[in-house]
Amino acid sequence: MRVDMLESRVSDNFFYGVHDDEEAALVDPVDGERALEWVRQKGVDLRYVLNTHFHQDHIGGNSTVLESRPGATLVASRGDADRIEAQSSTHGVDRRVEKGDVIPLGESALEVLETPGHTPGHVSFLEDQHLLSGDTIFVGGAGNCSFGGDPGTLFETFRDVLPALDDDVTFYPGHDYAVRDLEFILSIEPDNAGAESLLDEARSTPDDELFATTLGEERSYNPFFRYEDTLLRGRLETEYADTYETCASRADSTAEATFRTVRELRNRW
Length: 269
Prior knowledge:
This protein is α/β, with parallel strands linked by helices. 38% of the residues lie in helices and 23% in strands. It contains 11 helices and 13 strands. The strands form 3 sheets. The chain has a 6-stranded mixed sheet with strand order 1-2-3-4-5-6, covered by helices on one side. It has a 5-stranded mixed sheet with strand order 7-8-9-10-13, with no helix packed on it. Strands 11-12 form a two-stranded antiparallel sheet. Helix 1 (32-42) links the parallel strand 3 and strand 4 (45-50).
């Protein structure tokens, strides 16, 4: 299966065209006209429009695409489907999916992973070493929880779902926040060598290209994955004591308290 990165011209999003044996799917095609250009250029049969979650900056191009390609199936999670339909006057969700469901595409197949936290029903789509991850994970970061999300739920996704995936899985997020997220990490961990080494690469990446990493790389330095790191926890407890104490009062473990604290500090930064 091939994954093509597409830059939106109507927002700061990146979205994706995936194809195999002339069958294709669009993942979060916020820019409908750009999405249709890709379909025409590739000469593929558009089988699916896949939505990771209900936010308008991911589903805004659904109607444009589906009006032009009425044979395509709109796929979304059971948890977010109603909110997606509420924002569309032209097309309902054709297939509501949940954990473990499979979407065939040519000789390949996309597995549905439930990755809630950014929204209650957020899903990601996995094919071999490709993870279409929406707004769950970013280079140096994790999804915000400001628009219908919950940091405790997002922590559970980072604790229970993402660790099951191989280190060499490349993830494809809905935005490129790499520079800002890496700068944030260095603001709370000035000695984070992994973030420092990636920052120069991220800064030199052209604006119309996505700076991509693997899950293994993220696990090595990204504080949202390092919630069990005692040195990180100690730094947060010492240097951001009030924030850590507040987050700990809402958490069921020190690991969750660490994760929540990093998320809260990033919210304010």
